[in-house]
Amino acid sequence: MPKIEIYTTLTCPFCHAAKQLLTDKGAVFSEFSLSQNPNLREQMIARAQGGRTVPQIFIDDTHIGGCDELYALDAKGGLDPLLNG
User: Fold this and answer.
1) Which of 15, 53, 79, 84 could make an S-S bridge to 74, C-beta 3.0–4.6 Å?
2) CA-only gyration radius of the chain, Å
3) Which residues contact 8 (CB under 8 A, 6 or more apart)?
4) Three-state secondary structure call for residue 33
5) 1 pLDDT band (50/70/90 cuts)?
6) pTM score of the predicted model
7) Mutual orientation of helices 13-24 and 67-75 as an angle, nearest 10°?
8) What is 4-83's CATH topology?
9) Regarding beta strands 30-33 and 62-65, do their DSSP bridges make them parallel or antiparallel, or are they unpaired?
10) Where are the domains of the chain?
């Protein structure tokens, strides 16, 4: 099973949508809430190569991007192979 990490904030609708897609696919992920721990923002920006918006999603340490990128990856059939190892 891949290591999935997602940086979020509590009020972000895109974060909720990304988490819902992952949940619907049965993926287990670690969530890093910037609302609860703002100090993680700098870590997220560094890992996302400057990405400042949430969500920022990583699968096995590969930066996927945000919600739009996650849904686009799924639409072209690229998400399931990553989730299934």
Assistant:
1) 79
2) 12
3) 15, 18, 19, 31, 32, 33, 34, 35, 54, 55
4) strand
5) confident
6) 0.96
7) 30
8) Glutaredoxin (3.40.30)
9) unpaired
10) 4-83
